[in-house]
Structures are given as C-alpha cells and as structure tokens.
Amino acid sequence: MNRILKHRLFWPVVVLVALLLLNLVFTDGFFRIQMREGHLYGSLIDIFRFGAPLILVATGMTLVIATSGIDLSVGSVVAIAGALACMQISDLSDQNSVSGVLTAVGVALALSVVLGLWNGFLVAGIGIQPIIATLILMVAGRGLAQLITDGQITTVNSAPYKLIGGGYWLTLPFGIIIVAVVLALTAFLTRRLALGLLIESVGGNAEASRLAGISARGVLMTVYAFCALCAGIAGLMISSNVSSADGNNAGLWIELDAILAVVIGGTPLSGGRFSLSGTVLGALIIQTLTTTIYSIGVPPETTLLFKALVVTIVCLIQSPAFRAKVFHRRRRPIEARPATEEKVRVSA
Amino acid sequence: MAAPAPILRMSGIGKQFPGVKALDGVDFRLLPGEVHALMGENGAGKSTLIKVLTGVYDIDAGEIELEGRRVAFSSPLAAQQAGISTVYQEVNLCTNLSVAENIFIGREPRRFGRIQWRAMRRRAAEILSRLDLDIDVSAPLASYSLAIQQMVAIARAVDIDAKVLILDEPTSSLDAGEVAQLFRVMRRLKEQGIAILFVSHFLDQIYEISDRMTILRNGKLVGEYLTSELSQVELVGKMIGRELADLEKLEARPPAREGAPLVEAERLGRPGAIEPFTLTIHEGEVVGLAGLLGSGRTEVARLLFGADHAGTGALKIGGEQVSLRTPRSAVARKLAFCSENRRAEGLIPDLTVRENIILALQAARGWTRPIPRRKQDELVDKYVAALNIRPADPDQLVRNLSGGNQQKVLLARWLILEPRLLILDEPTRGIDVGAKAEIQRLVAELSDGGMAVLFISAELEEVLRLSHKVGVLRDRRLVAELDNDERLTTDALTETIASGARA
Question: Considering only CA atoms, which of A253, A254, A283, A252 is closest in space to residue A266?
C-alpha cells in the first residue's frame, strides 16, 4: 500500500480518476463506449481524440524540459505546419490526390524539423537561454504562419487530409493511432536506445555530462528538433480536423497546456528525470478538465478561471512539501530536519 | 609582547556531520588588533570552524565567548549584529547596484520613509576614504574590479560596527597590485583594533600580513604559532602531517619502465589559470602532482583533458599533434578524468549507479548504439564487485551513496573505457581510510597493467608511494619535476613546495 502511495504517478492518477467520476455524476453513461457504423464512440474516446494534439506536443515538451530547457514556440509550429500543409493542398488540382497530400504533409513536417533545429541552434550553438531562444520563434512563427496563408483562413476539401485529424481507422480515430505510434517511437528512442540516458544526464548535470564526453550540443539539437516535429504533427491534426488553417489561432496557448501537462506528470522543470507516461496522464487530465467544464455546465465566461483553480489545486496536491504541511500538521510538529546539513560538503 | 585579553575565544569546539567528524575539540582565540591566519589543507575544518563561529552551523560540543560573554549565534545575521562580519571569497553583493547602495542596503538613512540619497552617498564616501579608497560611490559596483568590490564588502562589514572581521580567501582572484591594496586596508583596520581572521592558500601572503596562525588538520587543532617563529617548511609539514603511517605500505615502487611517451605537453598553458608547462607522461607511468590547493594542480589536469582550452603551447598524444576542443575528443583518444569535484563535475546525482557507470562508454558510442542490458549488467556487476562499491545495488541513486562509494562509481565509469591515461584529481579526498587504500592499490595495479596515471593529491605520502615521477606546483607554475628515487622524501617535497626551488 505504502509503495502505491509513494509511486510518483499516484497523485496524477487519483486526480484523473476523480475528474472522470465527477463527470459520471453529471453525465449519464459517461463511461459508455459504443460501436456505431464500425467506429468507436463515447466520451472517453472523445477525450483521447481531442486530447491527441496536446499529448503529442507535451511528449516533445517532456524531452525538452528534461534537458532543463523549455520550448515556447510549439504553438507557432503547430500553426505553421497546418498552414503550410493546407496551402499546398489547396494549390493541388485534385485535392483528393493521396500523393499530393503526402507531399504536403512531408514538406510541412520537414519545415517543422528545420524550425526545431533553429531553436536547438540558438540554445546549444549560441547559448541563449531556452525561454528566450524559443520566445523568438513563438512570436515570429505566428507571423510566418500568416505569411504562408496570406493572412487568410485557408480551407481545404481533401478526404485524405481529413483522415489525419477527423478520420477513423481500425474502428479508432486516426489521431489516437498517430499518438500511439509517436509515443511508441519516443519510448523506443529514449528507453530502448540511449537517448533518454543522455537527455537525463545533460539535464541532471550539464558540466559533468560534458566531462563524461557527452556532446550536449548534439543531444539538445536532436531534442528540440524532435519537439518541433511532434508539434508539426499536432498542427496537421488540428488543421485537418477543421479542414482549414488559421495562422492566428491554431495551437494558441498550447505550449502552456503542454508545459502544465509535463509538470503534472511529475517531470521537474529543473530537468533530469522525465516520465513519458506521467506526461500522457497530465495531458489527459487537462483534456478531461476541459470536457468536464462543458459537461457540468460551468458558465463560459468563468471557464478559464475555473480551470486555473483546478490546476492550482492539482499542483498543490502533488507537491510533497504542501502535503506535508497540510496533512501532517495535526499529527505532530514537523521535526527539524537536518536536510541542509546533509547537502553541505565538509571542506575547508 | 604582552597579549591583551582575547576578544574571541572558542574552546573544545566539536562538529559532527553524517559520517565525518569535521571538528574535534578545536580551541581558537582571536586578539584585538591582530591578523590571525587560519591554516590547513582542504578538508581540515577551516570552513566549518568559520561557519560554526558565524552561526551557519550549530556546534555539537564546546563553547564560544565574545568579549568574555558566552554566545551562540543562531544565524549569520545574529553573528553580524554581535560584531562578527564575514567577507567570503565570492563577493556576495549586488553588482547591479551602486557602491553606496551596496554599503547601506537594508539600513539606508531615511527621513519620513524616504531614502536620503545625498546623505547616503556622503557617508559611503566617508567610510571608503577611511580605507584610503577614493572612488565614485554612485557608480554601479560592477564597474569596479574584483579587488574594489572586495573592499566595498569589507567597508560594509566594518561599518556594521565589526569587532571581528573574517576574510575567507579574499585574495584568490586578485592580482599582485590588488592584493597589496587589500593588505593596506587590512593594516588600517588592524590599527583600529579590529581582529581579522584571514584564510588564504598563498603562503607568501600569509607571511606578509599575518601576526599569528592557527593550524588545523583533519578537524583537529595542530597548534597556535606566532608567524615570525614558524618557518614555511615547518608550516607546510604541520598542515600536511604524517597520518598515513597506518596504511599498509605498498612494496617499493619499481623503477619507471621505459614506456613510449603517451602524452607530451609542450609549453601548454592558459593565461590566468596556469603558466605554460612542459610535461611528458609515459605508458605505464604514474606521474604525481604535488602542491598546495590553488597551486594549479587541477588546471594542469583540465588542460590535458581538454576540459579547458589551452591558450598556448602544443599537446601530443601517442606522438600525434592534437588539439583537444572538448572532453569528448579527449575521451575518443582514450583519456579519462576524474574531477576532484565529484558532485559538480563528476556524477549525475539523480541517475542510478548503473547509469552513472555506463555514461562515458555510452557517450562514446553515441545514443543510437545502446549498450545491451546484459553487457551493462556484466560490466556494472564486475566493477561493483572489483571496487567493492556499497551498497552493491546498481539501481540505487548515486546521490544516496557515501563519498567513498561515489568516488568508486566515478572511477568505474572511466575504467570500463579502458583508458590509456587516467587522470585522478584528489581521488582519495574526503573518503575513509579503507577506501583510500583500495584506490591506491588499484592505481598501482593499473599502472602495472600498462595504463598511465596522472595522480593529483594533497597528501604527499600518497603521491610518493604511488608515483614514478612527481611534478611540483606552486602559485600556478610547475616549478620542479622530480624522479621518485630514494633521495626523494616527503621532507624534500615539502621543501620544494614551500620554497619553489628544487631541494
């Protein structure tokens, strides 16, 4: 029992379950999953489906944060990828041409990777603080997306493109399948190959990593490029779902939701150890919260405030220091811990 | 001279840290109007004594008297209010604020809640002029040299009605002219009757400025001496001590075999860190580096490993001219470096023992070629057993291990790479006697197996026991290179360290 309580994903799971149960009270048959016309339907499926872009962006963000960096530009990359894909498809003579759509998707993702390499270059090559380096693309990227779409909302009418964000495959929404593939790939790269070890090492102690012969620059470039690639895929999903590209609003504030998902999932902003499953849980919590707000009928003008309140509570519950203060106070006064002394090295 | 009553008296001070007795029955006294040097090698307990005195730590035993009254400070602030001010090596002022603001921060002259800027600047200028310092007090502190910043910190400390001023390595980043200026200020304060506790690793400076010194070794008091009555050689001998007699003697060093030159440094140097030096390390040879802390031992190691860029000179590895841009290129040439600073520059505390051990090997292979788990387990188990790492749990976080075991993990990381040159910077510092002996034995075995080792240690006996050849450093210069034959003794080595000339 104690081991379960101590598990680092215990509190995120509790929060997610609590949110789902809350929904069950307000919505009849919230947990029901039906088969309709060969597709799976239900609120739970919807949470996964609408949460898919956030899970993707948060996955990339997890790796960046593990290197003790941050990437604020993912929202802009989402907009750029969607804009570029839609522009190319709208220029096709036959918008339903599979090869044309694939080319558009490939070009959009390639640009995303280039943008990620740019971020990585600013951080690792020039040594700009990540928050500033990615702020550049966060602001400029919106302009770039506007430039691509000429400031218009570009609509497309392409069945193959629609599949990415709105279609079904093997009874499942296609987006969920993409997320599963990306997550599996990430897990493979970081846990089966050694990328995860190097990322955690660079994030845990950059100088020691350098002295151990790790090329921090290469690791950082890879991670920022990967993060942008995830954002690019999410951008395709979002624009495909609505069959249009909106340079201004696509992926707006998604970077903040993604950072939040990472933090709720237990990866510290200071870098080091990261948890992919924690991030997925975090993203699901945020998506469920959004669903809950609609289902329990919170007035639209207060939704943001409500969300902020819940997120604050979630973060507080997760903080061991806060729990210790609130829950243990009544039992016994906290004994003075010599924590600071243990860290101090005895030297003259 | 007739000694006045001490302003500060510490008696029987004891301080215990987990696993280490940092101070054990130390007596210390400070007379008004004297400069008193606190001497001792790294880990001797100087910092701990200062921290106990200024209320950073509690004491476990003993008592502290200030002006005859028994005191116990709960915080550095309380100590400061009682008249004990400290200026640390790193200036802890706000360099973005003006000089005057820094002197008066937190206690600005006010009227009706408003800060009286003019009065503040005038008084700041007065205080500084008493220290013979004539500078623009409204300029930001950052626009002045480190020495001036140091003195502003001292001015601030003194102005808070200090009776005791503690200067913890104030000169380590100053040049000769700045040191002279600092010493002028110290003499002036001395005339005003302030007691100054001075810590420095530069012996010449100690002899120039201090009246009296207290020597610590391994947390114990060695003694209190008048500076004029203790020679430099005696001082170094007392600091270093002869406490390794209880370690088993390794058999007499075999004469250095004629291995091929492995690493040849030709006038390699880095301005501000180490003067150009020339050093050759042969295969299978153990080269010791001796010298006091701050003498440039670590800087030599870092240049050879490519951790810092060399400003001058050339480096050959295996006869081939190389330019080591990063540690990565050094590792690729089979060089390995265990930093003296295990926590900041060695281990990744949040990773496990296994991950820390395989890190360098994995980095050399690149992330696309993971070391198979079975191979990992094999390597890790082998070295956990060979080095006797405890607990023998590869999945334990390294932060939970003791210092000696952390050191062994770091050693294991490099040993699995099978390096040609292993650079060990203070590998036995802060670890217990048993682990120390194990590491010494390992070094001897490795060199017998053909590996070259650069062995840096503050303990001369250890250097002598292991090395074929000893390089002596003093004030950031390689002053001598001595063959380790019967004629080389710790006394001769001590003499060389103290005088800077060949014995």
Answer: A283
Number of domains in chain A: 1
Per-residue pLDDT of A53-104, as tens digits, reads 999 999 999 999 999 999 999 999 999 999 999 999 999 888 889 999 999 9
Average pLDDT of every residue of chain A: 87
Identify which of A268, A250, A191, A248 has the alpha carbon closest to the alpha carbon of residue A57: A250
Q: Chain B window 352-371: which residues touch A at a Cβ cutoff of 8 Å?
A: 355, 358-360, 362-371
* Inter-chain residue contact A209 with B359, CB threshold 8 Å: yes
Question: What whole-number distance in Å separates Cα of residue B465 and Cα of residue B376?
Answer: 34
Residues of chain A with pLDDT below 70 are 1, 328-348
Q: What letter represents residue B263's amino acid?
A: V
Q: Are A239 and A85 in contact (CB under 8 A)?
A: yes
Are B46 and A348 an interchain contact pair (Cβ–Cβ within 8 Å)? yes
pLDDT at B434: 66
Chain A interface residues facing chain B, Cβ-Cβ under 8 Å? Answer: 192-195, 197-198, 200-201, 204-205, 207-215, 219, 222, 272-273, 341-342, 344-348
Residues 195-234 of B with CB under 8 A from A: 216
Min CA distance, A118 vs chain B (Å)? 21
**What whole-number distance in Å separates Cα of residue B447 and Cα of residue B453?**
7
Residue A262: per-residue pLDDT? 94
Whole-number pLDDT of residue A319:
76
Ramachandran category for residue B113: left, alpha or beta (phi over 0 → left; psi -120 to 50 → alpha): left
Which chain B residue's Cα is nearest to A200?
A: B351
User: What does the pLDDT read at residue B91?
Assistant: 65
Joined tokens for residue B196: 């100054």
* Residue A191 covered by a domain: yes
**CA atoms B369, A222, B330, B359: torsion sign:** negative
**B28: contact with A, CB 8 A cutoff:** no
Partner A contacted by B289 (CB < 8 A): no
CB A264 within 8 A of CB A275: no
pLDDT at B249: 47
DSSP calls for B285-343: -EEEEE--TTSSHHHHHHHHHTSS--SEEEEEETTEEE---SHHHHHHTTEEEE-S-HH
Question: Distance between CA B23 and CA B12 in Å, rounded?
Answer: 9
Q: Is residue A174 part of a domain?
A: yes
Domain region containing A68: 55-287
Does the residue A116 lie in any domain? yes
Taking alpha carbons only, the member of B172, B175, B173, B170 closest to residue B186 is B170
pTM higher than the cut 0.80? no
B305 touches chain A (CB under 8 A): yes
Three-state DSSP state, A40: strand
**Which residue of B220, B367, B375, B397 to mutate against A (max A Cβ within 10 Å)?**
B367
Q: Scan for tokens 């010298």, then name that residue.
A: B291
Residues 6+ apart with CB under 8 A from B228: none
Q: Are strands B421-425 and B452-456 parallel, antiparallel or unpaired?
A: parallel
For residue A22, tell me if it sits in a domain.
no
Residue B371 to residue B376: CA distance in whole angstroms: 6
What tens digit of pLDDT does each residue of B345-384 get? Answer: 899 998 999 999 999 999 999 888 999 999 999 999 999 9
| Nearest Cβ partner for B17 among A197, A214, A346 | A346
pLDDT at B263: 92
The interface predicted TM-score (ipTM) is 0.82
Q: Can you list the domains of chain B with their CATH numbers?
A: 8-240 (3.40.50.300), 261-499 (3.40.50.300)
Instruction: Count the alpha carbons within 13 Å of B40 in the hemisphere toward its beta carbon.
Output: 27
- Extract the residue ranges of chain B whose pLDDT is less than 50: 1, 243-251, 503
